[in-house]
Fold this sequence. Notes:
single chain; alpha/beta; DNA polymerase, domain 1; 2 domains; seven-stranded parallel β-sheet; 13 helices
Amino acid sequence: MSMPTNLEIAELLAAAGDSADEYRRRAYHRAAGAALTWPEEVASLRDAGTPLSSLPQIGDRLAARIEGWLDDPPEVPEPPPSRAGFVTLAWARARLAEDPDWADQIRGDLQMHSNYSDGKHTLGEMTVAAASRGYSYIAITDHSGGQPVPPGMNVPAMKRQQNEIDRLNAAMDGDGFRVVKGIEMNLDPEGVGDVAHDDLTGFELVLGSFHSKLRVTDDQTPRYLAAVRNPSVDVLAHPTARRYNRRPSLDADWPAVFKAAIESGTAVEIDSHPHRGDLPLELIRVAVEAGVMFSIGSDAHDPEELGFLDVSLALALDGGVDPDRILVFKDVDDVLAWSSR
Ligand SMILES: [Zn+2]
């Protein structure tokens, strides 16, 4: 048997947690989630002599457990639907290394959050961090909602943020870096946004996403058709709404949804967070077949998470996406021309 990958270690940890008592279950499940975000395969870390307890969420006891799995690889159980079909950051980095020119095409990142909503850092800090990665633009896409819990912007906060972005862009004029005014607008289960059309006028890019009624198992095609046909929405964000070890993808007639997205000029996102990886690979292949435009966003809530973008890049590469159909491979002027069409 070959050494378990981080994905397999995640499943071994999660499955061990499933059968543990409450306290240990949470530790195992947190570690399983963290395993998806480790940038290197644990097997190579150990070969390099790095103590596994240096990994986030891994204490001495879990490190010893993982060492045991590396020494004597066990059978990895079939994951339940809420853990099936995910990829890890370590997988993404290795996949991109096979085709180094692919990731060089990246020019920006079209989903991230600041402390205007649930991000941990200021708009300026996120911008500086993204610029230092070599991008030429980002979209700041804080949540709508207008409530402190879950954190979302009301209309005055949207205006304040847009003014702050104008000042930031003016200050960076000449550096060739641009902050795009974006928003991640909540869509209700009927596909209707929670921001009035007129209040969206200052935004250059509107992501629409579902954050409610995500555990239903019956067919959700009508809400998706309404979402991609919603004239305010430029990008359908984290489309299936799946979350690692929490809930599987919503179910829909995806070829019909993608066809409607193309007809409406709505892009479909590949969200990079390893706990989302959304679209999943098998749906990326369906979307490629349909010919959709893809948006890519890290969904970073702090500067370190900007590096999750590699997950989307690797999924797009592995899914056979045409580079011409990837918004972040285009110049910012082309992205904005597209979103304002
Ligand atoms: Zn979201």
